[in-house]
Amino acid sequence: MREAARLRAAGRAEEAIGAYERLLARAPDLPDSWYNLALMQRQAGRYEAALQSYQVALDRGVSRPEEVHLNRAVIYADHLRRDAEAEQELAAALAGNPNYVPALLNLGNLHEDRGNRDQARALYERCLAIEPGALEALARLAGLGRADNAEDAMIARLHGAIATPRATAAERASLGFALGRLLDGCGAYEAAFNAYAQANRASRESGRGVVYDRRAQEKIVSQTMKRFAAGHPHARSADGTAPIFICGMFRSGSTLLEQVLAAHPRVTAGGEIDTLPGFVRKALSPFPAAMANMDVDKLAALAAEYRADVARKFPDAERITDKRPDNFLYIGLIKSLFPDAKIVHTVRDALDNCLSIYFLHLDHGMAYALDLLSIGHYYRQYRMLMAHWKALYGADILDFDYDRFVREPRAEAERLLAFCELEWDEAVLSFHRVQNAVKTASVWQVREPLYSRASGRARHYARQLAPLAAYLGDIYP
Length: 477
What we know:
- The protein is mainly α.
- It is built from 22 helices and five strands.
- It is globular, with a radius of gyration of 23 Å.
């Protein structure tokens, strides 16, 4: 037990799994050890095994069963795309503990993914009734509404919550991003930018001073370009239609694009499928150097594994979209696995794009998002890599311009469907009516009919963006 705990604390998930399995083979009636095994299995990406271990922990009387149900719900919702089962787990958690705020928060988030604004609002308000200091619930509640002016009651409430001495850095970040959104929405641009700047500082603080490493990013891009050059091996084309891969910078319109395609009767939105990044972390580590050892048969095996994983998640789908903005890092891998893959690359005005990233509460793994000039550096590296991919696979990469789509939706939609080898369907122009779960920050934008207010947004922040505009001067506009 000590050895398993040591390995778990050291983050050595696979070894910890082995240690817990040996322990539980000898002493199976240890619910907390089953729980810890499940934690490690989830960390290692063994989601079905983790669900089983969590269930054994429940069956053997683990303490705080509501927490176990919550963890099972997260696996179902975030990794297996089985939202109905996630909701059942959250209901089980709340049946045992009706005031369990983490389950209420997650249930509210599930309703947001589905576009159920009123249900989500009611759950966040219930959280605050149970625990008035639930600042994350307040931030999410604020994210559901709009403010008429800078004196709006919710704006004052957010200011007060941020100033609360007991607010953690992570909570100040969530509240600050929500505050910035409301101020931007009512035209208080100076105050909005200040709120976002403070939110990014709080986010950096909550990540213990996380810093974007420019040299590391340059090395990744350089090595990728060298490893994937003309003539590198690829799998033989297999039976079945290749997925449609969507990539681009975050906040460049990828969620909107996926919803447009998902409105087509032959397309299912896969969202941010984590199979390719899983290959990069495991079978292809260190990436891209490990690609030197990949032959046609190994690539074919990975392609088959990808198809099988997607088929398990979306068993009735004809065409699947794999929408990860960071897929642009893996286009060489994608074309190695699926030579006939179609890749749609979302683009928009560079300053609008960079500003929108700065205004988004991203994971600390994307540390570049916390600083405007770091975003600019990442953007330059992205542009350089995309130019490389287009030189190799230009015929299979379509630039989908968000700003052009806003101006000419039908023409751009027709071009998109033709590229994806899909017949025209009028439904794609009513993408906001698609009834599916959207698990990105654009969940509410894509529930609305097409609007143009996000194009040219940077003009409201010309003074604050002047250093970034100068840094990108040779590629912008």
